[in-house]
Amino acid sequence: MPDLVVLLVRNIFRSFVLGYLLTAVSPAVLVPSMLALQENGLGVDKGVPTLLVAASSIENVYAIEVFSVLMSVGFATTSLTMQILQAPIEIVIGVSYGLATGVLFWFFPHNGHPSKSAYRFIILLGAGLTAVFGGNALKYSGAGPLATLIMAFIAGYEWRKSDAPSHKEVAEKLAKLWRYFQPVLFGLIGAAVSIEKIRPETVGLGIAVIFIGVLVRFFVTPFATLGANLNWKEKMFASIAWFPKATVQATLGSKVYDYTTLVLSTQTVPDPYLLRVQQIGIQMLTIAVLCIVITAPLGALGITFTQNRLLQKKKPTELEVSEREFIEEELSGGKDNMVDSLFPRNLPKKRHSEPNMRMFPDEFTFT
300 — phi, psi (to 5°)? Predict the structure, then answer.
């Protein structure tokens, strides 16, 4: 009976792991599209681009953290008691490390340091890597990502408030670093997929799971945006904009497979339980790749083709209207009229009086 309970608990946790793996919207697809909407003035009056980006950011943080914690529980090889305590321990470690390092970075380096932006970039990157690799070494893999997110949030909050230009410079450096490593990430997850290990039923069931999840989300999104004062077209656009998946799936898709492969490489006699978990990891990796290949291009195309039909363009303010009318009125008279308004040519000429002879002594004569 205890073995049956353990198996049931593990299967439930594994189902949630797959669900949180597939749920996160891709920032790599969504954010550039929303920035383009901002520049074109589409949906800006109601803050649609800002709403979609903010909601997806919160969702990504939530999905990553829950995925990490559930993976530690669902694929653990320890006792049931330790599995139950695993999640609270990881949360305590992650929150403690993130808060401590985030507050420390408020004071180091100080605001008067000439190279503070470079130092902040280096220590933030180093502390994040330390959290992730340290959590894996301590067998609390869910603590690392949680600590990194909290640390960056706490440190960035103070940096933005005390020195906004320096904070922007650090963010730009991290974005540039991500630009170079993002192709490597997608290349690694593609290389990890072994075609001969993929079973046909995994592909079919995986596609079914992806489309069922996307359809449910499409119809639930309008209810999630009820308090945002959006019309039905804007709610439909939100459903389409939250369609693409890529970045989080590429980051987390191979986690289970990598974990079991690493543990099996240290064993002389492979554990049968870990071999079964490794097969589950291959299935999750396959479904993650399918999710990227299917949803990322369809979501990007959906945003591109529906943004002008479902979103309203920003209405100009009274000042913008008056400035436009003034320019049109000036231009309607032609080029000469515009030049005359800037450099008048028909002003009356100023008369210069003749020299007053009384102002000069008699000995001065004028010829």
Answer: -65, -45
Nearest to 282 by CA among 249, 253, 246: 253
CA 96 – CA 102 distance, rounded (Å): 10
Residue type, 260: T
* 340 three-class SS: helix
Map residue 199 onto helix, strand or coil. Answer: coil
69 CB burial (10 A radius; 0-12, 13-18, 19+): buried
- 40-85 pLDDT per residue, tens: 888 888 888 888 888 887 788 788 778 877 776 666 655 656 666 7
Tell me the per-residue pLDDT of 290-341, one tens digit each, with 9 for 90 and over: 888 889 888 889 998 998 888 888 766 655 556 566 555 655 555 455 545 5
**How far apart (Å, rounded) are the C-alpha atoms in residues 25 and 63?**
10
Distance, CA of 171 to CA of 152 (rounded, Å) = 10
CA nearest neighbour of 10 among 198, 277, 259, 252: 277
